[in-house]
Write a structure and sequence with these properties.
The structure holds 2 protein chains of 2 kinds. Chain A is mainly α. Chain A is built from 10 helices and no strands. Chain A has a single domain, classed as Cytochrome c oxidase, subunit III, four-helix bundle (Four Helix Bundle (Hemerythrin (Met), subunit A), Up-down Bundle), CATH 1.20.120. In chain B, 19% of the residues are buried. The chains are: A mainly alpha, B mainly alpha.
Chain lengths: 254, 115
């Protein structure tokens, strides 16, 4: 009696083992194949990104409506931004997207060293972007262009008092009530670039986590889902910046 | 059972570094082009009295959309993804455009002809 129990137990254990042997350890049991698991997580990641599109879409819509209402204020507010730093940051972010894509390729090819290298490069470009953003924000702080009690309309009621911007654009002075609306522009500027930068900070945090895990060989065993889906997030943040650059920096130049 | 499935599944597509490099260059060229275009006054089109289309923002957004499309198709692998992913992305984009389009059409037309 006890023998037969032992036998049936060991058979069950063997059956269980052989079942495990059929698929890699990272395949969850509720998926039939690794490909199915990959497609399901990929689908879920895209659903998350669509909620992000709607979230940023609200900010973009608010910006377009406000710009239409207070057009002169939004144009002169936009002239305060540096096209040089904006262009540099766009290039940095595009490069970081490229190194992120190469990280995914390295994981797929199971090359641990190159994965760690490309993740580190992506991290470096991420920090560079945030550093440049910091330089730009600091200038707004110095010129009292941060919305709030210390906000100053000096640059807009008397553009000649701001010679660096004036010699580039020769903006006419705004009436005091329209000049006040530049605060709306800067509110949306900080809301949009700030929310974008928050996404960058979160991305940088996950990148650091991934670099530590990748050094231990976590993503080079064929299980690339985490790297792939983080890549989707990082590229999405890049796309948001491509539109922020066009809408905040470029379209009001003429 | 599992063998049968494997026959139907296609291999997970790995996009080559060469493709990524071409897209990187295209994105950098696009960035240069959009900055250059912003320094030129591209003029405007008077469609009707009170309705004017400025070309600068149109060109800037067109280039931005081209860049975003390249990122989505190649960096985000949608070109090589399942039809489910393609449908998800397309329907999300469509819903987004309907929401933003309807909202802007409402705001911009409320006071039509009263300014």
């Amino acid at each position: 009696m006890s023998d037969s129990t032992a036998i049936s137990n060991s058979t069950a254990a063997e059956a269980g083992d052989s079942h495990h042997g059929e698929h890699p350890p990272y395949q969850r049991h509720h998926f039939e194949t690794v490909d199915q698991q990959f497609d399901a997580t990929n689908f879920a990641m895209w659903l998350f990104l669509l909620t992000e599109v709607m979230f940023f879409g609200g900010l973009f819509t608010a910006y377009l409506i406000m710009r239409n209402w207070y057009y002169p204020a939004f144009v002169e507010g936009s002239h305060q931004l540096s096209i040089f730093w904006g262009t540099a940051n766009t290039a940095v972010l595009i490069l970081s997207s490229f190194t992120m894509a190469m990280s995914v390729w390295s994981a797929e090819k199971r090359r641990r060293g190159s994965l760690v290298l490309y993740l580190c490069l992506t991290l470096m470009f991420g920090f560079t972007f945030l550093g440049i953003k910091g330089i730009e924000w600091h200038e707004k702080w110095e010129k009292h262009h941060i919305p709030g009690s210390s906000f100053s309309v000096q640059s807009f009621v008397n553009p000649a008092s701001d010679p660096e911007v004036y010699k580039e654009y020769h903006d006419p002075p705004l009436a005091p009530d329209m000049a006040q609306k530049t605060e709306q522009y800067f509110f949306l500027y900080f809301a949009m670039t700030g929310m974008h930068a928050l996404h960058m900070v979160i991305g940088v945090g996950i990148l650091i986590f991934m670099i530590f895990r990748a050094r231990g060989g976590a993503y080079t065993t064929g299980h690339v889902t985490f790297v792939e889906n983080f890549g989707l997030y990082w590229h999405f943040v890049d796309i948001i910046w491509i539109y922020l650059f066009a809408l905040l920096y470029l379209i009001s130049r003429h | 059972m599992s063998e049968q499935h494997q026959e139907h599944e296609q291999e997970h597509h790995i996009v080559s570094p060469g493709v990524y490099l071409v897209i990187l260059l295209a994105l950098l060229v696009g960035t240069a082009a959009t900055v250059a275009a912003s320094y030129i006054d591209l003029g405007e089109w008077h469609i009707a009295p009170g309705l004017t289309l400025f070309w600068n923002p149109v060109v800037a957004l067109a280039i931005a959309t081209t860049k975003a499309t390249l990122v989505v198709l190649f960096f985000m692998h949608v070109k090589y993804s399942t039809r489910l992913t393609k449908l998800t992305v397309a329907s999300g984009l469509f819903t987004f455009l309907v929401l933003i389009g309807m909202t802007l059409a409402d705001y911009f037309s409320r006071a039509w002809g009263r300014w």
